[in-house]
Amino acid sequence: MPAPRGPLSAALVDVLAGRLAPGALSADVAAGPYGEDLQLALYLCYELHYRSFPGVDDEIEWDPDVLRFRRALERPFLAALRADVPGGRDVDQAIAELLVEPVEPVGNGPVGGGPSHFLLRHGQRWQLQEYVAHRSLYHLKEADPQAWVIPRLDGPAKSAFVMVEHDEYGAGHGERMHARLFADMMVALDLDPTYGRYLDVAPAETLATVNAMSLFGLHRSLRGALVGQFASVEICSSPGAARLARAVRRLNGDDPAGWTFYDEHVEADAVHEQVVRRGVVTALLEAEPELAADVVFGIQVDGFLEARLGRRLVGAWAAGQSSLLAPGLDRSRWLVSQNG
Question: What's CA 328's distance to the chain center, in Å?
Answer without folding.
Answer: 25
